């Protein structure tokens, strides 16, 4: 899926008028991550909401070593962006970085979902590009069972009975500065 295709996914149909976006991004493509944030109608808070330092699954005391341009990568970052007003933070003691075993391709550790719940409490949540279903989260992804929605460039289709997730936003909503989006 191209960055343009991701930008056209109607996350604005799923997002509450006041919500937090926690989005994993590829370190070699920070500008592309910012384009997605803007296209979805959010504004950036920080590029480092969470930092996952990867260790081995069989040797948890040993950090993994991945690919890299200048240095070998052993972490992934999750940015935070906001739409409307920032939701109330429930727990001010959540630490940014954590160490957890590297998982199969693109799968993220459960501790991230747990940290988000601790941070924001009992709010509606959806995980896009999910690899598995998660308790307390609606999910969408081609590798998870029973997704709650089908996302297509420009529109979302409610297939899982989500009743309050859609705001009937127009196909070309305005961006977070009130300007009409380009089609």
From TrEMBL:
GO terms for molecular function: methyltransferase activity. Belongs to the MT-A70-like family. InterPro entries: MT-A70-like (IPR007757), SAM-dependent_MTases_sf (IPR029063). SUPFAM superfamilies: S-adenosyl-L-methionine-dependent methyltransferases (SSF53335). The keyword Zinc does not apply. It comes from the Bacteria. PANTHER family: N6-ADENOSINE-METHYLTRANSFERASE (PTHR12829), N6-ADENOSINE-METHYLTRANSFERASE CATALYTIC SUBUNIT (PTHR12829:SF7). Transmembrane segments: none annotated. Keywords: Methyltransferase, S-adenosyl-L-methionine, Transferase. The lineage of its organism: Bacteria, Pseudomonadati, Pseudomonadota, Gammaproteobacteria, Enterobacterales. It comes from Escherichia coli 3.4880. Pfam families: MT-A70 (PF05063). This is MT-A70 family protein. GO terms for biological process: methylation.
């Amino acid at each position: 899926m191209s960055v343009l295709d991701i930008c056209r996914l109607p996350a604005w149909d799923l997002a509450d008028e006041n919500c937090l976006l926690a989005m994993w991004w590829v370190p070699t493509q920070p500008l592309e991550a910012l384009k997605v944030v803007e296209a979805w109608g959010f504004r950036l808070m920080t590029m480092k909401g969470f930092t996952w330092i990867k260790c081995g699954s069989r040797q948890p005391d040993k950090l993994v070593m991945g690919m890299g341009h200048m240095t070998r990568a052993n972490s992934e970052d999750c940015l935070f962006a906001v739409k409307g007003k920032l939701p109330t933070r429930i727990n001010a003691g959540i630490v940014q970085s954590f160490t957890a075993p590297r998982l199969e391709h693109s799968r993220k550790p459960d501790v991230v979902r747990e940290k988000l719940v601790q941070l924001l409490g009992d709010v509606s949540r959806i995980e896009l590009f999910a690899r598995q279903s998660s308790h307390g989260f609606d999910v969408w992804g081609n590798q998870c069972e029973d997704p709650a929605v089908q996302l297509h460039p420009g529109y979302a289709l409610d297939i899982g009975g989500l009743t309050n997730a859609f705001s009937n936003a127009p196909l070309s909503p305005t961006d977070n500065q009130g300007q009409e989006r380009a089609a």
